[in-house]
Amino acid sequence: MSDNDFNQYGRGLLGGISVVLDLRNVSLIREGNWILKNIDWKIEKGEHWVLLGLNGAGKTALLHMLYAFYFPTKGKVTVLNREFGKDPLGEKLRQKIGLVSSTLQNRIYDSDSAYQIVLSGGFASIGLYETPTDEMRAKAKQLLRDLGCFEYADRSYRTLSQGERQRVLIARSLMADPELLILDEPTNGLDFLARERLLESIEQVTLSPTAPTVIYVTHHVEEILPCFKKTLLLKEGEVFAADDTTKIITNQVLSDFFGLPVDVRWYTERPSLVKQR
Ligand SMILES: Nc1ncnc2c1ncn2[C@@H]1O[C@H](COP(=O)(O)OP(=O)(O)OP(=O)(O)O)[C@@H](O)[C@H]1O
Questions:
Q1: Name one GO molecular function term (predicted).
Q2: How far apart (Å, rounded) are the C-alpha atoms in residues 197 and 195?
Q3: 27, 31, 37, 59: which to mutate for ligand 1, most atoms within 8 A of CB?
Q4: Could you tell me if the CB of 181 is within 6 A of ligand 1?
Q5: How many CA atoms lie within 13 A of 142 on its CB side?
Q6: What three-state secondary structure class fits 15?
Q7: By three-state DSSP, how is residue 265 classified?
Q8: Strands (E), 55-140
Q9: How far is the CA of 3 from the centre of ligand 1 (A)?
């Protein structure tokens, strides 16, 4: 598949694929260290996944590979029907992978308004250098509304709170109709209320009929929303478990994963975790 296929067929062609992500026996060595070891991970279209791991587990390294910032030392990475690891990732394909991360946050220009930032997602640029079409403007406004950030659309990024910034960046990532949306610890630095409101918006995104496949990366079991039916536990660069969330988020699996006896409690389809006494 070439970049042109996207121009010609847009989402329609990708609509025909059933596997969004397929990692086969993927390993990564950086500066002589094994960062990822023998990762197998397959994501079917329509699934939403949580990637859960402690600090240093290799989550960011794994995401960097999905976005072709890192090439695997060993194994095969296929994202949206394109095997990579050798070829550079085409711009059109990159646009089909939305990424919201702290790295992106740091690159956004402080003086840009929320509206400009969302519009820039349509060009996959940091900053707005091209003239958006009327259609793009209408879409950006709708996304600002959908993500609950319309009221501060004209405010500059520097004046927005952390929660407001995350909403704007998610809206921005949806401008290009991504097939895969990666949310890397989006609730970092948020208080309880801001976190819950953001999670609500993320759930809404997954409920849309045109929703991208979402990978939600977190350290916290409490953030696993009911829409995330699948969970991958990453530990010391290896897949500890990957399966239905209800099979993974159990006392037994998590006690083994953390190396500490824990109790999982479910309330309104959300889990929480306490250390056993
Ligand atoms: N380019 C690199 N060179 C050497 N070591 C690296 C490199 N990138 C990551 N590492 C190491 O690989 C391990 C995994 O790092 P990574 O940032 O992927 O973890 P993480 O799960 O995202 O952690 P956190 O939750 O703390 O962000 C860490 O021990 C880190 O120091």
A1: ATP binding
A2: 5
A3: 59
A4: no
A5: 9
A6: helix
A7: strand
A8: 74-79, 82-84, 97-100
A9: 31
Terminal Cα distance for the chain, rounded = 55
| Residues in the chain with pLDDT values less than 70 | 1-17, 85-91
ipTM of the complex model: 0.95
Residue having the nearest C-alpha atom to atom 13 of ligand 1 = 56
Q: Is the minimum distance from the CB of 33 to ligand 1 under 6 angstroms? A: yes
Q: Is 53 in the pocket of ligand 1 (CB under 6 A)?
A: yes
Give the closest residue (by CA) to ligand 1 atom 5: 30
- Ligand 1 binding pocket includes 61 (Cβ within 6 Å): yes
- Give the position, in ligand 1's atom list, of the atom nearest the Cα of 62: 18
Q: What is the pLDDT of residue 195?
A: 93
Q: Cα separation of 26 and 119, whole Å? A: 35
Q: What is the dihedral of CA 133, 136, 140, 145, to 10 degrees?
A: 110
Q: Could you give the CA distance from residue 208 to residue 178 in angstroms, rounded to a whole number?
A: 13
Q: Under DSSP, is residue 67 helix (H, G, I), strand (E, B) or coil?
A: coil
pLDDT for position 11: 46
35 Cβ below 6 A of ligand 1? yes
Q: Which residues contact 62 (CB under 8 A, 6 or more apart)?
A: 36, 39, 51, 234
The model carries a pTM of 0.90
Residues in the chain, how many? 277
pLDDT for 104: 83
